[in-house]
Amino acid sequence: MSARTGPIVILTGAGISKESGLDTFRCAGGIWSQVRLEDVATPEGFMRDPDRVQAFYNDRRRGLLTDNIRPNAAHEALARLECEWDDEVFLVTQNIDDLHDRAGSSNLLHMHGELLKVRCEVCHGVHEWRTDLGTGEDTCPACGALGRLRPHVVWFGEIPLGMDRIADALERCALFMSVGTSGTVYPAAGFVAEVTRVGRAHTVELNMEASNGASLFREVLQGPATELVPAYVD
Ligand code: BJW
Fold first, then answer.
1. HAMAP family under this entry (predicted)?
2. Mind listing the pLDDT tens digit for each residue in 190-205?
3. Which of 27, 103, 208, 229 has the greatest number of CB atoms lying within 10 Å of its CB?
């Protein structure tokens, strides 16, 4: 990785977990070709048919917890980078899986939430959760409300998490790296433009194919994350 003189912000998306065995959203055969996002990833979809939405996330939660889903060489390389540069590295992931956590990244923000957490619609408490939801018997560990837990994920129309912290980091960073994201979903898709507007940072995209925002990056590398990321950061 080229020499730098300031913080590094890394944005990751579903492509980084693809080689760990998790589906992306918009690749051929991806999640949005299997289900309609309006049905499962909007507050309106949840109000219309909560059981359907809970079943969608129950399936994905069970999938994530199977033994064969593990962090890959790209997650591990980003965790090593944080070991080397300490709190100079800020990892912002759009992914709700826990593969960065398992790889050892800790200066990490899940801007679209976490699959292994639930949020109580009554007291708004967030809790670790590893089993199915939606039986009507789910009880909030904090306030005791019955059947009012939802997946702690950010649906379309909801505000992503940690936006103030992200905006501050984008403004100060010397390197902005985007890994495995199609650059389709805002506000994450707009981060490279924000960094570029401030003008100081090097920007690099590592993705299987050119993303929607590829022309905004100073450097674009194409290929699988498990090859590109270790080669770039080590
Ligand atoms: C590989 C690979 C390998 C494959 N190696 N690469 C303009 C401005 C602001 C907002 C909007 C706007 N226009 C519209 C909006 C609203 C909307 C939006 O963006 N819509 C667009 C579709 C147009 N955004 C929102 O509603 C967001 N909220 C919001 O904007 O609030 C307003 C606000 C913002 C800020 C401050 C104040 C107010 C919320 C968005 C929530 C997204 N939620 C989801 C689902 C929930 C989580 C879940 O179930 O998992 O999040 S949608 C889904 O897409 C998921 C992902 O995190 C997200 C991004 O997908 P990602 O990661 O890019 O995956 P793919 O599949 O698209 O791409 C994978 C890439 O990997 C591909 O390019 C492959 O080539 C590559 N790849 N294998 C390397 N081995």
1. Sirtuin_ClassIII (MF_01121)
2. 999 999 998 789 999 9
3. 229
